[in-house]
């Protein structure tokens, strides 16, 4: 199922506004379903982002502390989609009849002039080490190249996030550069490693 607002080809030269987030494409992996995030998912987001281990390698400065914060995040995702620069999905397990969100994943800083985007993803801690992130990034990469017709995808991560680097490498992303002390969290500056993949490189992996 493809949602009407997905821009492709020459359409990406224009700016899109007021997209309906609830029509965001649903994406399937062998074990996961990526779907729009709703206000009813706020407790799941709070559970995940209140865990210091989950936000350790992200730009979040402090663990999430309230349902209001969770709902603010959901509204931010919806606003980013309506303005055309971010797609953010909730990750659920196909086998889970409760359809509970166990992570989020997205394309952000989508650039319609240069056909590129950054990707980002987080999973709740109980679901680490099961290969789910590798599945999700694989599906997101395919969506970016095949559905959105992007030319380049990239990801930024703190070098200490070795597990995330492995996920990217398994999906064909290559280390490209280190941006020194680009991220400030609390009183500490962190380097950021950049990984990227081009459409032609991705095609060679198929």
List the helices and strands and how they pair.
Layout: E1 27-28, E2 32-35, H1 42-49, H2 52-55, H3 67-82, E3 86-93, E4 101-111, E5 116-123, H4 132-147, E6 152-157, H5 162-170, E7 174-185, E8 188-198, H6 199-205
Parallel strand pairs: 5-6
Antiparallel strand pairs: 1-2, 2-3, 3-4, 4-5, 6-8, 7-8
Helix pairs in contact: 1-3
Q: Biggest β-sheet, characterized?
A: 8 strands, mixed
Mean pLDDT: 91
In what order do the strands lie side by side in the largest sheet?
A: 1-2-3-4-5-6-8-7
Distance between the termini: 22 Å
Fraction in beta strands: 25-35%
Helix content: 25-40%
Structural class: alpha+beta
Count of helices?
6
Radius of gyration: 16 Å
Q: What would you call the shape?
A: globular
Work out the number of β strands.
Answer: 8
* Low-pLDDT sequence parts: 1-17
Q: Element order, helices and strands?
A: EEHHHEEEHEHEEH
What is the compact description of this entry?
The chain is an alpha+beta fold and 206 residues long. 29% of the residues lie in helices and 30% in strands.
